[in-house]
Amino acid sequence: MKKPTPQMTVDEAKKVRVVFVIIALTALVIILIGTFMMRYLEGLTYLDAAYFSVVALTTVGFGDISPETTGGKLFVMGYLLVGIAILAAFVNNLLRYAMARRVLNNAETKEKS
Hints:
113 residues; Helix Hairpins; 3 helices; 78% helix; 0% strand; elongated
């Protein structure tokens, strides 16, 4: 027996798209904040600081770069608490956004015909 798939209206799809864009931009800003702060606090290159930010927020945590200064350690504690939640929301909304795009594309196709 096949389960019915939930349907999304065009209005809901538009709202999902707006939320996704907001969360995606917020995630980008969080990564940039981490990059600039690690550059400033730890003296890392921009590439290493960006690498650290992405690896830390995705919870991969290779451990090859870690904060050495007290300021860096304090910043990273707060950064991870906020940043991991935002990245999790971003990943969660990826699937909803994919479904919303399909709904909006179908609506556009119906309007053209």
